[in-house]
């Protein structure tokens, strides 16, 4: 009995010492690696007050393991000089000049001229054009999608991809490892059985790779022969077929969205973004004229691709949005399915409204995530109190992501206005300088401004609702 008591006593001391060492190690790692003060305090507290479990949770969920090496393609980049430096660009002389310079420093990409960017509404407009482009491909097809369903919409695109592969076109398809089904991705299986090179981004059933479930490629890219591209917010699924030809879906199940057809030199930047994700996932480098032909002008718009993700591109889209808000003199319009930004963006928007900039934020009356709607109503009160106008768009669910500034600049693409998109997801947006396109997007957003959500109205809601929403707001980093 004495021996057992002694072993128990010694074992208890060893466990206590092990806990102290592990908690101290977590604390040191957090202090050196984490920038967010609230998150840092939270992880340190969990490590100290939840012995061993706190350390395990931090190891699994708290460490960013996706520090992707900059897999830069060795092929000649159309926008780079022979010494590898960026080709000099003409400086803007208007009030958006600082925005252009910031974007160039953030992305290491120029603002390419000679482009055409055409809006496409819902899958009804976009899918036929995407299928037609794939059917006309002669050299290469690159497709990346967060959601790719094996349904009425997805199977038509799958058939076009398989046919292109069978006639000798180089086809590469990248599907997110979570968004298209973690345990079973039917579109991936169908493409693989047909022999099409297809991969799943950050997907694994191995337990030690489970932390990657929280890191997703949310990009939507389709590039044909290095000359024609498609990007925006549109996933691939029958829910995006809205106009009359989708009787299986109810109004609550439909998803409205906006995609864009892109032609011109900036398509090379879209291909480049896809190629970096492809080499990271598969190890295969895409190079040569099939993927990067000599760029040809196709219009007069100036455009640049902006990527972000929890690696070397951390928070770049958020930084660009902050700079755009700071440069705005007359108007800022934002449309997004989820509006849960951090205090930096809320403060910047509020200050813009107080200095006289017209700030309009349009969100769906009801999103596809009820908890997100609750958190949004708690998060938005301080911004609404500054004079910024918060609008609710009617059903069906509006998944479009747009931002315009001063009738001259717009930001389109895959990123929502929430912490997941800005800090966890791999996202791709495109900024475009063109008054005609911006005017068209402004008119579209103004038409969606149906019901205004005022600060007074939010503050007068019943106390149980406000408590519920405030509790949901605590989950912002994970929504």
UniProtKB/TrEMBL annotation:
<dbReference type="GO" id="GO:0008808">
    <property type="term" value="F:cardiolipin synthase activity"/>
</dbReference>
<feature type="transmembrane region" description="Helical">
    <location>
        <begin position="12"/>
        <end position="32"/>
    </location>
</feature>
<keyword id="KW-0444">Lipid biosynthesis</keyword>
<keyword id="KW-1133">Transmembrane helix</keyword>
<dbReference type="Pfam" id="PF13396">
    <property type="entry name" value="PLDc_N"/>
</dbReference>
<keyword id="KW-0677">Repeat</keyword>
<feature type="transmembrane region" description="Helical">
    <location>
        <begin position="41"/>
        <end position="61"/>
    </location>
</feature>
<keyword id="KW-1208">Phospholipid metabolism</keyword>
<keyword id="KW-1003">Cell membrane</keyword>
<dbReference type="InterPro" id="IPR001736">
    <property type="entry name" value="PLipase_D/transphosphatidylase"/>
</dbReference>
<keyword id="KW-0812">Transmembrane</keyword>
<keyword id="KW-0808">Transferase</keyword>
<feature type="domain" description="PLD phosphodiesterase">
    <location>
        <begin position="399"/>
        <end position="421"/>
    </location>
</feature>
<dbReference type="InterPro" id="IPR027379">
    <property type="entry name" value="CLS_N"/>
</dbReference>
<keyword id="KW-0443">Lipid metabolism</keyword>
<dbReference type="GO" id="GO:0005576">
    <property type="term" value="C:extracellular region"/>
</dbReference>
<comment type="function">
    <text>Could be a virulence factor.</text>
</comment>
<dbReference type="InterPro" id="IPR022924">
    <property type="entry name" value="Cardiolipin_synthase"/>
</dbReference>
<dbReference type="InterPro" id="IPR025202">
    <property type="entry name" value="PLD-like_dom"/>
</dbReference>
<feature type="domain" description="PLD phosphodiesterase">
    <location>
        <begin position="213"/>
        <end position="240"/>
    </location>
</feature>
<keyword id="KW-0594">Phospholipid biosynthesis</keyword>
<keyword id="KW-0472">Membrane</keyword>
<protein>
    <recommendedName>
        <fullName>Cardiolipin synthase</fullName>
        <ecNumber>2.7.8.-</ecNumber>
    </recommendedName>
</protein>
<dbReference type="Pfam" id="PF13091">
    <property type="entry name" value="PLDc_2"/>
</dbReference>
<dbReference type="GO" id="GO:0032049">
    <property type="term" value="P:cardiolipin biosynthetic process"/>
</dbReference>
<keyword id="KW-0964">Secreted</keyword>
<dbReference type="GO" id="GO:0005886">
    <property type="term" value="C:plasma membrane"/>
</dbReference>
